[in-house]
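Summary for the steering committee. The consortium agreed at its last meeting that each partner would contribute one worked example illustrating the joint modelling workflow. Our contribution is presented below. We chose a case with several input lines so that the handling of multiple components could be demonstrated. No manual editing was applied between input and output; the record is shown as generated.
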Amino acid sequence: MTAMTREELRARVLGRHDAVPDERLRTIITKLIEHLFAFASEVDLSPAEWAAGIRFLTEAGHITTDTRQEFVLLSDTLGLSMLVDLIGHATGQGETESTVLGPFWVEGAPWRSAGEMIGRPEDGEPLHITGVVRGVDGTPIAGAVLDTWQAAANGCYDVQDPNQPKGNLRGRFRTDQAGHYDIWTTRPVPYPIPDDGPVGRMLAALGRHPWRAPHVHFMVSAPGYQTVTTHIFDGDGEYLDSDTVFGVKPSLVRTLTRTEAVVPGRGDEPISCYALEFDFTLAPAE
Amino acid sequence: MTAMTREELRARVLGRHDAVPDERLRTIITKLIEHLFAFASEVDLSPAEWAAGIRFLTEAGHITTDTRQEFVLLSDTLGLSMLVDLIGHATGQGETESTVLGPFWVEGAPWRSAGEMIGRPEDGEPLHITGVVRGVDGTPIAGAVLDTWQAAANGCYDVQDPNQPKGNLRGRFRTDQAGHYDIWTTRPVPYPIPDDGPVGRMLAALGRHPWRAPHVHFMVSAPGYQTVTTHIFDGDGEYLDSDTVFGVKPSLVRTLTRTEAVVPGRGDEPISCYALEFDFTLAPAE
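What follows is the complete predicted structure of the assembly.
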């Protein structure tokens, strides 16, 4: 009797899934098994390497809580989250490109007025972000909502940092009748993703760093349009070419202009600050 | 500026791993990313499906303890464990085929004498297993150790069942000068793998059952030879064609012969029982 081959085993495992009742699940499990088998077979995965993989997943599971999601970090650092974002959101109509949501978005950020400053003096150098929200046909969208959030100068979001008031560096702005928005915030800084768990050890073994390029988050929505979740990146910031979650897309990078202006809440005299313009383009709802 | 494509993202993620210091790790991570991207892209994995995958892994991590390993169950039920076993152990020299170790092997099983019965009357119908351990060149191996273990009539191993004495249906036997071994045990029964967690729910969604075909475990070793970890399957048992961990290989299946014999510990008269012969063949140590 001849010994079972890899190909026979593969055929047997795939054959067991010929009759999966749900068609979509059948497609997904079949492709998953095909690629799992191809991966293990192409690298000749050893029992010791398999065991290391089991330990890695176990540790990732054990460090994961309601506020720490190691499997999302794993997906992010392998680029899978960005791929799923592309698959799920890109329409090819010229809309603003999306990027990862990240773990720090909070529902119900405070409403802000046009021109309001969302950061404190200690949160960093003032940054004025202005622009227009339009449809892909160029029509300005009045009343679009820009939900924005970012980390402070210490690299922490308000929800991570007991020293920041709730809602700090976070807010919802509306566009005016011309589709224009006007936000004062602070210049973003780079920060590392949580790297004290198995994903951090993986990055170290791979010779990679855990840093994200400096960015301001935006979720822009309007009735009749698809919501876009994205970042604006500081074009002079560190890690643009090596953002650890692969979130940087060239169209989302802007060079900040150094200028002087009267900054809300920072006195009546012009002070040194930065400015950038970014127009958002939304695809029509499906 | 054109939007980033899947192919550009893939190239960027792979490119980040060109300089991984350890060559073997570079090979593994590169293939892993290639197949992860191919899987997600070929099925157009949606953000909702991705989120379901993250939840699945999180639940698997949270149910996993020192005595419950959901990630191993996942690997087993997707056939990966059998593939890694093939990759790691098959030498192609005609040795006895291996199969999964499973979670119930215990180091230091009690030593037994040739012809000793390892089960109690309530553990099932007596089964006499005999045979010879040989090298691939046909030479009988004296003093080879056969470490054997199996579940009782209730489908539980001693370590799962407070009503079984420690070491029940478990033991180490040695071959005699002619390489012959002689074991009395009980006829094995099918049992389900733990199916109260995410893997059980996965099997249900796939239209699969959680049962293992009835088997007796063996780990056979001798100095100068490669250890083989395998099962003998009951040829009349249920689930041979659908063993949930894909552990069955045709060369490991034996039809039991019904016979009458004097059974150790079951009186002095011949009683109804079963017999099978199985010769183990070991590859030389590398």
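The radius of gyration of chain A is 23 Å. Chain A touches chain B through 74 residues (CB under 8 Å).
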